[in-house]
């Protein structure tokens, strides 16, 4: 399986995605630093313009990194899998002496592993940037994280796991509709579902929701590969 994953990275020129992830992280870091320390989130009178309960910097970091990398995951899944069906390159891969399910799983894992690692490293870089800035400047947001705490890293890993896994839902929709655009659009819709507020209600504050969403995501991942050995190519 590891050889297949490495082959997918090589075939899809993973270097360009690494560069894109680095640039994305730099832009997010710059934006969130400005949000925290340069007052771009403040009203003209200097008070913070934030929704109730969203006055902590970790909420903004989790929101914007989640949005960015969920879309990034959707784009990669679209390129690695959906486009391979549309361009008929999957036909060639299915002639290999390897089970179709194993090929699809390796493609999905190649995207998942890359984005999970990229999201974790991106968050760490941004948190470190904010942590360092808070030593010298006054933050508009409450600095509510402790990088010396084990729970900080546990939560960072768990939240990253959930966000990247959500991409499998977008993949299922894209494969069902035979559309790369559908994969990316579904990623946007998932963001609204998980992050948007309706009055004071938001699914982001529901403790059970991440676990349910993760189970649903892997359920859709299983649906994406089930019966692939028997059914015709899309």
Layout of helices and strands, plus pairs?
Blueprint: H1 2-11, H2 14-37, H3 57-86, H4 89-93, H5 100-133, H6 150-165, H7 167-177, H8 180-195, E1 197-198, E2 201-202, H9 209-225
Antiparallel strand pairs: 1-2
Structural notes for this entry:
This protein has 234 residues and is mainly alpha-helical. It has one domain. It has helices at 2-11, 14-37, 57-86, 89-93, 100-133, 150-165, 167-177, 180-195, 209-225, and strands at residues 197-198, 201-202. Strands 1-2 form a two-stranded antiparallel sheet. β1 (197-198) and β2 form a beta hairpin. The longest helix is centred in the middle third of the chain and has 34 residues, at 100-133.
What is the succession of H and E elements?
HHHHHHHHEEH
What gross morphology would you assign? elongated
N-end to C-end Cα span: 24 Å
Largest sheet, in brief, is: 2 strands, antiparallel
Q: What's a quick, concise take on this entry?
A:
The chain is an all-alpha fold and 234 residues long.
Describe this protein with a few key phrases.
two-stranded antiparallel ribbon; about 70% helix; mainly alpha; about 230 residues
